[in-house]
Amino acid sequence: MSVRPEVQAAFDRPDYDVLIIGGGINGLATFRDLAMQGVRVLLVERNDFASGASAASSHMIHGGIRYLENGEFRLVRESVRERNGLLRIAPHHVSPLATTIPIQGVFSGILAAPLRFLTHKQGSPKARGAVLIKIGLTIYDLFSRDGGSVPRHRFHGRRASRRELPELAPDFRFTATYYDASLRDPERLALDVALDGEASGAAAGQATALNYVEAVGGDENGVIVRDALTGTEQTITSRVIVNASGPWTDLTAGALGKPSSLMGGTKGSHVVLDNPELLAATGGREIFFEHQDGRIVLVYPLKGRVLVGTTDLEADPGERAVCTEEEVDYFFELVGQVFPDVRVDRSQIVYRFSGIRPLPRHDDMVPGFVSRDYRIVDSQGPGAPMLNLVGGKWTTFRALGEQLADRVLALLQRERSASTEDVSIGGGRNYPRPEAKDAWIRSELGGVSLERGRILLERYGTRAREVVNFLADAHDEPILGDRLSSREVAYFVEHEKATRLNDVLLRRTDVTYTGDLTSDVFEHTLAAFADAAGWDASRVEEERSLSLDDLQAAHGVSPRVAPERAGQRRRTAR
After folding, report:
1. Which of 57, 140, 197, 418 shows the smallest number of beta carbons within 10 Å?
2. How many CA atoms within 13 Å lie on the side-chain side of 97?
3. Which residue in 296, 366, 356 sits closest to 331, CA to CA?
4. Cβ–Cβ < 8 Å for 343, 281
5. Is residue 437 exposed (0-12), middle (13-18) or buried (19+ Cβ within 10 Å)?
6. pLDDT band at 290 (very low <50, low <70, confident <90, very high)
7. Under a CB-based contact definition with an 8 Å cutoff, are residues 415 and 409 in contact?
8. Are 79 and 62 in contact, with CB atoms under 8 Å apart?
9. Would you give the distance in Å from CA 363 to the centre of its chain?
10. Cα angle vertex 513, ends 511, 518, to 5°?
11. What pairing do the DSSP bridges indicate for beta strands 384-390 and 233-243?
C-alpha cells in the first residue's frame, strides 16, 4: 500500500507555522480560522474527521438552558449568539428546533436551585417545577433577544398540552416549549469546515487537513506523526502546536512526552429507534424530560427515526465508549414515564452510539455540574509552545476556534486579517429559503429527479451543483434508491477524503443511522469504494472485516438481508 498523495505532499514539506493535533470540530474550526489568516497550518487526525466526541453529540445546537443554574452566564450568552449565527451561515445543516419540557409540579426545585447555583452540589434530586422553568426560560429569552432567529418560549396548561401531545402521560400539568436548533448531520458540517479551511489556504499548500495520521511522539526537533495506513513516519516542525484532542488531550500530551492531567470527560450514550408510534407522539419536537429523581432523557425526532439519550457517566478515555444494556434500560424506563402507552423495546433499536465529552478534570464534582465552558492551557510541547484545549462543545465551535486562533496568532506575532463570524460554511452559501428549495433544485440541479435533488441539497447544500456535475461524468449505479449511488461514493473518495469504508457508512451518509444498512447496500457500497480507491482483493477483504467489526462493536449494527428493499438499488438515482 502506498502513501496517499496528500500525506506524501505534507511529509515532503514538514515545516509549518502551526500543527493542530485533533480533527474534531474544535480542531477543525481552529484550522479553518488560521487558514483564513494565511497561516501555513497542518492538521492531523488519527481516525476520520469528527469520528470521536464530535460524532457522539445529541445533534443539537443549543444555548444550554441548564447551564444557567450553574451560573455559566458567559457560556449561555455566547452559545445563544453562536446558535443564531449558525442558523445563518450553515442553514443546510442547522435549523430551528422546538423543544418541549413536560412539567409535573409547580414549585418543585425552587429551594434546591439556589443551593445548586451557590455550591454546585447535587443535594436531594428534584425535578424543576413550573415556576423555576418559567424563570429560566424568561432569562433564556433575554439572551436571545438580539438575534431574533428563533421564537420565544410558550407555556401550556394540562388541556392545551394534551391537545398538542395526546400521548403525554396524564400526570403532567404543564408543558413549556422553547426553541434551540437541530444539527442534522454533525459529521458533514465538520467536513465542510475542513474543506473550507483547505480551500482558504489553497495557495502553495498553505493549509492541509489529514485524516488517519496520528501524533505518536516528539523530541526537540518536533512532533513525530505516523500515517495509520502505511506506518510511514515523519517529524513535523512548527512554531506552535495546538493540542485539540478532545477527551484524549492528556493521552496526546503523554505521547508527546509532555504528561498532563487536564481532562475528566464523561460518557454520553444514545439509541436510535425505528418506532413510528413514538415518532408521532413527539409531535415533531424534541421532548426534554426530567424525572423527580433528577434523571433526564431526550426524545428527539430526526430523519424519520427517534433519537433517545443521553447519559452522563464517568469514563476512561483509554477505552472504547459503548452504549450499555443498562443505559438502554434507563432510556426505556424514562420514555415510559413520558409516553406510557407507547411501546418501546430493543427490537426497534437500529443504531447505538456513545462518546466521551471533553470536560475538564473535576475530581469529586457531580458530572452534571462540571463546566461545559472551555479554556486554553499553555505548556511547552516538542520543540515549540503548545496550546491545550480543555472543554468545548458543538454550539460554540466557531467562537472557540476564533479564540484559539487569536492565541496562536499572538504567539506568531501576527495580526488577524479576517473574521469567520459571518462567513458561510460549505454549502450554506446562498442556500435557498425553505419555500424556494424545489425551484432552486429545478433550476440548478438539472438532470436529477426532484427527490434526488432534495437529498443532495440537504446533504451538500449549494455544493450539490458540483456533485451533480461529478455524477454526470460517468456511469452512476443506484445503491439505495435516491439516497446513495456508486458515483457518489466515488465523489466521497475523490473530493471528501473518505479513506475507509465506514467513513461513508457512518459519516458521509446516514444510511447506518437510519437502519437502512442492508447487506446489499453494504456490499455495493464496498464495491463502489474499492473501484474508486483502486483496492485489490486483499484490501477489500481487510476493509470488509474491519468495517463489520467496528459497526457491531461500536454501534450494535450488523448489515441485514432485506429482500423487500433490493429493488431500491435498481431504481435510477438520476
Report:
1. 418
2. 27
3. 296
4. no
5. middle
6. confident
7. yes
8. yes
9. 27
10. 45
11. parallel
**Is 527 in contact with 547 (CB distance < 8 Å)?**
no
Helix (H) or strand (E) holding 386: strand 384-390
**Residue for grid cell 432567529:** 149
Provide the mean pLDDT of the chain: 91
Q: Tell me, what's the pLDDT at 562?
A: 59
Rounded to whole angstroms, how far apart are CA atoms 558 and 573? 25
The three-point CA angle 467-472-474 to 5° equals 115
β partners of residue 157: 174
Tallying the residues shown for the chain, one arrives at 574
Long-range contacts of 448-452 (CB under 8 A, 24+ apart): 448/573, 448/574, 449/482, 449/572, 449/574, 451/482, 452/482, 452/573, 452/574
DSSP count for the chain of H helices, then E strands:
19, 20
CA distance 303 to 14: 43
How far is C-alpha 490 from the chain's CA centre? 23
By the 8 A CB rule, do 253 and 260 touch? yes
- CA 360, distance to chain mean position in Å, is 19
Integer Cα distance of 159 and 101 in angstroms:
15
Question: How far apart are alpha carbons 474 and 471 in whole angstroms?
Answer: 6
Residue 177: cis peptide before it, omega within 30 degrees of 0: no
Encoded amino acid at 454, one letter: R
DSSP code of 396? Answer: G
Dist. CA 327–CA 271, nearest whole Å: 9
pLDDT tens for residues 410-441? Answer: 999 999 999 999 999 999 999 999 999 999 99
Which residues, at least 6 apart from 25, have a Cβ–Cβ distance to it below 8 Å? 50, 54, 186, 189, 190, 193, 394, 397
Find, among 5, 6, 4, 30, the residue nearest to 18 by Cα. 30
Beta 375-381 vs 266-273: how paired, if at all?
Answer: unpaired
Q: How far apart are CA 299 and CA 465, in angstroms?
A: 35
Pull the grid cell for residue 445: 440541479
The pLDDT confidence band at residue 507, using thresholds 50, 70 and 90, is very high
- DSSP H or E segment with residue 516: none
Other beta carbons within 10 angstroms of residue 202's beta carbon come to 11
25/19 Cα distance (integer angstroms): 16
Closest CA to 528 of 475, 570, 468: 475
* Closest CA relative to residue 187, chosen from 376, 378, 50, 367: 50
In terms of Cα–Cα distance, which of 50, 37, 65 is closest to 153? 65
**CA 310 – CA 322 distance, rounded (Å):** 12
- Give every CB contact of residue 206 below 8 A, 6+ residues apart in sequence: 35, 38, 39, 40, 41
By the 10 Å C-beta count (0-12 exposed, 13-18 middle, 19+ buried), 434 is classed as exposed
Instruction: State the CB neighbour count (10 A cutoff) for residue 474.
Output: 9
| Predicted model pTM | 0.93
For strands 233-243 and 15-21, give the pairing. parallel
Please, where are the H alpha helices in 45-181? 73-89, 112-119, 130-144, 158-164
534, three cell numbers: 483502486
Q: 3-state SS of the chain: helix, strand, coil percent to 5?
A: 45, 20, 35
